[in-house]
Amino acid sequence: MSLLRSLLATALLANALACPAQQPAPGQAVATFAGGCFWCMEPPFDELPGVISTTAGYTGGQTKNPTYEQVSAGITGHAESVEVLFDPAKITYARLLEVFWKNIDPLTANRQFCDSGTQYRSGIYYHSEEQKRLAEASKKALEDSGRFKQPIVTEIVAATPFYRAEEYHQDYYRKNPIRFKYYKYGCGRAKRLEELWGK
């Protein structure tokens, strides 16, 4: 975890335990993505018509009910991630994938911008065979596009239990807009995304 982010998180004085995410209601679907800092992965999805909500949390690990301190230390196997609840009648999973790719660095393993470690790996965690098919197709299309000379290292694996992060992490960019902007630009995220994807 970067020193910058560690200082920001510590200043918030949160100690709530994570809890498992809720199941989607009829007519809703869920998608799970990891793209480094979950503070930065909620905004791109929240602004999409058809997205009902986003939840910051942890997935892909072995420990039940992991805390932020455990995950950020890299001892649970989890990745910081976001769970996106959406209405498939209003937005497609393919569209969510498009937004996901353009908000991550798919070329760097176990790191996103200034945050390094397996807990900051990028990943797509599918909840159905159809999501798996679409995710793999989107990755192949990106590889075939010739945009990048380096291999794409983003993992595509079946979803495992997702644990909601502590409340102070939820909608961080809305609760703490100044701190969020400072982190996003100080971490080099905005600059690197522009290098990869353009403005």
Secondary structure: elements and pairs:
Layout: H1 3-10, E1 19-20, E2 29-35, H2 38-46, E3 51-59, H3 68-72, E4 79-86, H4 93-101, E5 111-112, E6 115-116, E7 122-126, H5 129-144, E8 155-158, E9 163-164, H6 172-175, H7 177-186, H8 189-197
Parallel strand pairs: 7-8
Antiparallel strand pairs: 1-9, 2-4, 2-7, 3-4, 3-9, 5-6
Helix pairs in contact: 4-5
The tally of helices reads: 8
Order of SSEs, N→C?
HEEHEHEHEEEHEEHHH
Give the % helix: 25-40%
**According to CATH, what is the topology?**
Peptide Methionine Sulfoxide Reductase, Chain A
Q: For the residues shown, what is the average pLDDT? A: 91
Any idea how many domains? 1
Descriptive report:
With 199 residues, this protein is an alpha+beta fold. It has a single domain, classed as Peptide Methionine Sulfoxide Reductase, Chain A (2-Layer Sandwich). The chain has eight helices and nine strands. A seven-stranded mixed sheet has the order 1-9-3-4-2-7-8, with helices on one face. A two-stranded antiparallel ribbon has the order 5-6. α4 packs across α5. The radius of gyration is 16 Å and the shape is globular.
Task: Give me some keywords for this one.
199 residues, alpha+beta, Peptide Methionine Sulfoxide Reductase, Chain A, two-stranded antiparallel sheet, 35% helix, globular
Short overview:
This protein is of the alpha+beta class and 199 residues long. The protein is 35% helix and 21% strand.
